[in-house]
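Throughout our pipeline, every protein is held as a single compact record rather than as scattered files. This encoding replaces a full spatial description with a residue-level series of whole-number codes. The remainder of this section carries one protein's record, kept here as part of the documentation.
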Amino acid sequence: MTTIGAHPPRYVGAAGQPTVDSWQEGPHNRWTFAHLGEMLPTASVTRHFPAAPAAATERLDALAVPGLSQRLEESYTDAFLVLHRNNVIAEYYRPGFAPDDLHLVMSISKSMCGLVVGALVDSGDIVTSDRVVHYVPELAGSAYDGPTIQHVLDMAIHLNYSEDYMDPASEVQTHDRSSGWRTRRDGDPQDTYEFLTTLTGNGTVGRFQYCSANTDVLAWIIERVTGLRYSEALSKYLWSKLDADRDATITVDSSGFGFANGGVSCTARDLARVGRLMLDGGVGPAGRVVSEGWVRSILAGGDREAMADASFTGIHPQGSYTRQWWCTGNERGNVTGIGIYGQYLWIDPATDTVVVQLSTWPEPDSGHLHELQNQLLLDVSRSLDQPLASQEIPTEETAQESKETAA
């Protein structure tokens, strides 16, 4: 069983040492989510052109949100940032966590993968109506034999896959073990590729079932059509276009396959740049990542009927899921990337705002904490309500004009 050395003095959390089987759980995660490279093998997701990081604001008084500091503490927040009209107007980091620290974003990684797929759809390298096995014939005979790439993007496939993070017998824990996130057991697949070929289903498509394996299938397709490792593709098609402050990292398994469904770590500011990309119609400071059409399809939302029984609709009754993003369906048009243990990348088109909240909940999933964070994110958005010249998604030209004005 792998262990690490003593925690640095800045660690705010449990006494004792996290292991490869306990690092995700609170309170160990208050340290490990910011030091994942000391727990697991990782690969760099390079930014290519280093930016000059702006000074951290580390202030919250610009937001008229009652009880904000207390609510951040109650939700185990490590980093919180509000990017309004491309300006950081509020920023908070808990004691022991710094603005330039990387933080594991868990399943917000899925939303990044969806953007890379979008770039390859725009280039014609991927066709969403194609069957998965057209690109990865190794998945013939698995649950992915019949579905299309669009089904995978929208999590609209039936799989015999339990996403119960605390059940050692669940498929998600086998997935973790195959990917190096937990100690392998005898009989486990050797790596993520092999694990994906073992998954079965009943052949049903069109109904939402959240399954982390779907994103890793997309990453395998990305590798197949680009000839790159997923970490390299994520750098080429997304990270290098963001003018990021720092390289991101992604955990890799024994075969070097990047854990696309949840393994990315980055700074809060750089994650906000991903959200800004969405508000700028798919254009980053260093060029277009995805088409306006791809972004518009996400902001328009997915199939609400397919989501009828999902827990997400308990908070957002009109909610849906499409292209690896959660869509609230509310009057504001909020869409979000979400990761377990309290990771949120919240996009508010109504006020041209991105909110990042990175946390370390004691447990992976909590209905109470989801409700608390969603209400906080809505309150932040509403506090910034004011008429905008246009609430249309910017074109490449207007996005550039916005950047020049902000500069």
